[in-house]
Design goal:
It is built from 13 helices and 10 strands. The protein is an alpha/beta fold and 293 residues long. It has 2 domains: 215 residues, Malonyl-Coenzyme A Acyl Carrier Protein, domain 2 (3-Layer(aba) Sandwich), CATH 3.40.366.10; 63 residues, Malonyl-CoA ACP transacylase, ACP-binding (Alpha-Beta Plaits), CATH 3.30.70.
């Protein structure tokens, strides 16, 4: 069974999507539609922008979403998912790809998500850190014992967990994690504490937008970050998507459940190849590939 997986923020690069634009009239049409919806030429920033321009949250999130969803669309008949999943932001790309959301609604949600997260980041100085080489339980326990807000945010693969919270709390947790034997506890160059309680203002803002968006019956199940299990009920999908901003991304558990449910091949749709690497670390026997036109 084929599982299609969609990357999140961090996978962007200058020139992304240009090949799709140049070779497909459908892609060209969708990029122009996106420029119109957003009110600025995101296609130009994607094709020609500097790394710094692409790093702005309001650009990064729609850019990664557009690369993924337009690629899936251009694949046409070749895109036949038995199941889908997306890492953080990638979950919205996956929901467009499996027809739960239409393209323009998905893009509007991604843009609102980016702006709401940006706003939430400005309220409290916050950050994230990657922790390598420790069991999840140890990381969770140290976060609980650390003063201030710091939580486990991204369960990426066994031995790789990202923590998220207030800057001083994350710094304290990193020290304690190194003492506990972490191979590395490394602050990440991100704008704020994604997937933590500090995203509550963004979650509230986005909840209203999600509730006012039409969610259709998908063509295949999605394994959501919050639930990690196969979901096809539009109402449940909607509820999980609202919860996602302040809840951890349970990627390890989602991939394990997809494999348990019969996934043999994981195809990454969008920029970069980070997710293929994570899948291999979760299960060495899993086949991974990059989506191509």
């Amino acid at each position: 069974m084929k599982a299609y997986i969609f990357p999140g923020q961090g996978a962007q690069f200058s020139g992304m999507g240009k090949d799709l634009y140049d070779t497909s009239s459908k892609a060209k049409e969708l990029f122009h539609q996106a420029d119109e919806i957003l009110g600025f030429e995101i296609s130009k920033t994607m094709f020609e922008g500097s790394a710094d321009e692409l790093k702005q949250t309001k650009v990064t999130q729609p850019a990664v979403f557009l690369h993924s969803t337009i690629l899936a669309e251009v694949m046409g008949e070749k895109f036949k998912p038995d199941m889908v999943a997306g890492h953080s932001l990638g979950e919205i790309s996956a929901l467009v790809a499996n027809k739960t959301l239409n393209f323009s609604d998905g893009l509007k949600l991604v843009y609102q998500r980016a702006l709401a997260m940006q706003k939430a980041c400005e309220i409290t100085p916050s950050t994230m850190a990657a922790v390598l080489g420790l069991d999840d339980e140890i990381v969770e326990k140290i976060c609980e014992q650390t003063e201030g807000i710091v939580v486990a945010a991204n369960y990426n693969c066994p031995g790789q967990l990202v923590i998220s919270g207030e800057v001083p709390a994350v710094e304290r947790a990193c020290e304690a994690l190194k003492e506990a034997g972490a191979r590395r506890a490394l602050m990440l160059p991100v704008g704020g504490a994604f997937h933590s309680p500090l995203m509550e203002p963004a979650r509230e803002e986005l909840a209203a937008a999600i509730e006012n968006t039409v969610f259709n019956k998908p063509i295949c199940p999605i394994y959501q970050n919050v639930s990690t299990t196969a979901i096809t009920d539009p109402k449940v999908i909607q509820k999980n998507l609202i919860a996602q901003l302040t809840a951890p991304v349970k990627w390890t558990q989602s991939i394990q459940n997809m494999i348990k449910d019969g996934a043999t091949q994981f195809i990454e749709v969008g920029p970069g190849n980070v997710l293929q690497g994570l899948v291999k670390k979760i299960d060495r026997s899993a086949q991974v590939a990059k989506a191509e036109i």
